[in-house]
Amino acid sequence: MPQAEREERLRRYWDKHACSYDRQMGFFDRHVFAGSRDWVCSRATGRVLEVAIGTGLNLAHYPDGIQLTGVEWSPVMLDIARHRAGQLGRAVDLRHGDAQALEFPDASFDTVVCTFSLCAIPDDQKAVQEMARVLRPGGLLLLADHVEASSWLARAAQALIEVASVPAGGEHFRRRPIRHVRALEFTIEDRDRFKLGIVERLAARKPLHQGPPGGEGR
Ligand SMILES: C[S@@+](CC[C@H](N)C(=O)[O-])C[C@H]1O[C@@H](n2cnc3c(N)ncnc32)[C@H](O)[C@@H]1O
């Protein structure tokens, strides 16, 4: 299937699942992700970009005083985020857009956030590179996601689940965004990995001066 057609299908998948998303995610937030939204959002400062913001579940977790922009490619998810922002009284510039080709100039943000979306964005490496591009030198990248487990048994189960989840909804279970972050020579300032290594969250600082592009997979 051509890439554009596949991506359109995934957008429609998220449109279709938008109304049940908060309920489903609520279970994982309570029982699996262990306060990851607070962990991530409490570190955000200044001009903040949230990539693939979904229904805006992070909105209630950001501190006051930040200037927030959110990007999301599913119009229905974005509508729910708009509604939530209104209910919370939070000013946020919400835009339709693709995480793999962000519309912002280089170095536009002090903080870039992405939670539980790098598992779903078709090209996660390109998305991390885009996040790094729009982050100012010395800015902070904050990620949380479910990733490849550290136990082989759990990894085998994840491989099995992916047989269905990738074709159905583009949901990957064995990615490691931290590898892309390291390849960009960011400094990992803080990191947690738990639940058999299935959940990983990290705070990584963009170098003030970037060397030549680094190799992958270190
Ligand atoms: C599992 S949800 C996570 C939503 C939100 N970040 C959260 O923490 O609840 C994944 C989201 O990524 C969005 N998404 C996937 N690929 C995208 C892309 N290329 N550009 C923008 N959004 C994308 C989906 O539409 C969906 O809203």
Order of helices and strands: HHEEHEEHEHHEE
Overall number of strands:
7
Assign the structural class, choosing from mainly alpha, mainly beta, alpha/beta, alpha+beta, or little secondary structure. alpha/beta
Instruction: Classify the helix fraction into a percent range.
Output: 25-40%
Shape: globular
Strand content: 15-25%
How far apart, in Å, are the first and last alpha carbons?
32 Å
Main sheet overview: 7 strands, mixed
Mean pLDDT: 95
**Count of individual helical segments:** 6
Q: Can you list the strand order of the major beta sheet?
A: 3-2-1-4-5-7-6
How many whole angstroms does the radius of gyration measure? 16 Å
Q: Low-confidence parts lasting 5 or more residues at pLDDT below 50?
A: 214-218
Bound molecules: S-adenosylmethionine
Describe this structure in words.
- By secondary structure, the chain is α/β, with parallel strands linked by helices.
- Helices cover 39% and strands 23% of the residues.
- The protein has helices at residues 3-31, 36-41, 75-88, 124-134, 152-169, 177-183, and strands spanning 47-51, 67-72, 92-96, 109-115, 135-146, 187-194, 199-205.
- A seven-stranded mixed β-sheet has the order 3-2-1-4-5-7-6, sandwiched between helices.
- A hairpin with a 4-residue loop joins strand 6 and strand 7 (199-205).
- Helix 1 packs parallel to helix 3.
- The two termini are 32 Å apart.
- The structure holds S-adenosylmethionine (SAM).
